[in-house]
Amino acid sequence: EEAIFLRKKITLLRAFSLLIGSMVGSGIFISPKGVLQNSGSVGFSLVVWFSCGLLSMFGALCYAELGTRITKSGGHYIYILETLGPLPSFLFLWAEFFAIRPANSAVVSLAFGRYMLEPFFAPCAAPVPAVKLVSLLGYYMVLTLNSWSVTWSARLQTALSVVKLLALALIIVPGMMLLAQGHTEHFQDAFDRQSLVLDKLPLAFYAGMFAYSGWFQTSFVREELVKPERNIPLAVIVSVITVIVGYMLTNVSYYTVLGTQDVLASPAVAVSFVQRAFKSLISVVPVLVALSCFGTMNGGIFTFSRTLFVASREGQWPPLFSMIHIRRHTPLPAVMLMFPLVTAMVCIGDIYHLLNFFSFSRWLFIGLATLGLIVHRHRHPELHSPFKVPLFVPVSFTIICLFTVAMSFYSDPVNISIGCTMVLSGFPVYYLIIHRQMSDRCRNLFSSFLFSILSDYLTHKLQLLLEVVQQEIKTY
What we know:
Elements: H1 12-23, H2 27-39, H3 42-69, H4 76-84, H5 86-121, H6 128-148, H7 150-180, H8 201-212, H9 228-257, H10 260-265, H11 269-277, H12 285-313, H13 332-336, H14 339-348, H15 351-379, H16 392-411, H17 413-424, H18 426-434, H19 440-475
């Protein structure tokens, strides 16, 4: 009886909640270990955290301008497509689907499972199969909700954003109280240059930027935003400043209570912090952290499904994934597509290897997107934009992103090479399938073929998972 399209249901408050809910997730609770490990000292790790926040603000401002210049949803994909052309945009889509997004979702899911089970097994570590099983259950719950309703997904994101800020407050307040009492012993000789290894710094930045990642999420749902010209810049600036302040205070609280060896030895830094500083909350904080990760999973599924939806609409992905549920008004096929890959990565993956694996591809294409902003300005000087950043912001952000990506080959050549290979594998796919003008029949065959492969792949992985779970039950 009426047109089927994605409705404008994302208000300013929901946009702010989407950004906060996506940024404040598993990162601040698992990344301090990775940042400290690769920066070498407390002082340098705090410098890395602040630098990552400043860099995120630069990127967020660039994306805010792109969001006012380009009116389509799709985030990185649509910005690269509109500014640099179809080949780099398809390579991003290829890497995002097969590497970046499933690895990112797997990292957050594993953090969710670990923190959810930590109170039940403390002081011992939770069994790995149990962590993976709970991680998958959490991911499937979010998947179901996003398939069911856009409104309820947005409401959940708003509620969990409050939970995330509460979780940070429960870490910041006792840490600041102890700092005020004079507990500064862990900040002695904070800038120890002997422990600084320059070729490891890109990995420290990857871990820090992972914690801040999410500042670009409004660009994925641009068509569903109410008053996007006003709300995108406003939501981006307020949310990123809020997160920078929160993250710096949280890290200072960590180091006030925990020494460098404690942070490096802890599989769940927030739990170790509570065990040492605030034992009365030993069962509360891990649950709040798990709910925080749950919100990040929700935001990730909510936004990436729009990328697949837009790519399908642009003709670079099977047409099935541009379809919308008639009654629910959700991009149901696009939401469900990540199901098999995330399941596989959760079953076989390790958090820190996955983090380095997907960070290379992610920051390569984010750097290309901001490069596209410079190109777009040069090509269309007559185009009026309601929000415009100084030119040095996109230039400096692009240079830092691409330099960090290049340096990471020296820091972790194995995982970075795998990520690079994943990107390059999209070249033959593009020229064999996308570049050539295929008939509708060929496109339909391609869609059916892809659906068949994914169905078989999912069935196989679920059977393996069930066998592992049954074996672990017998063992215990």
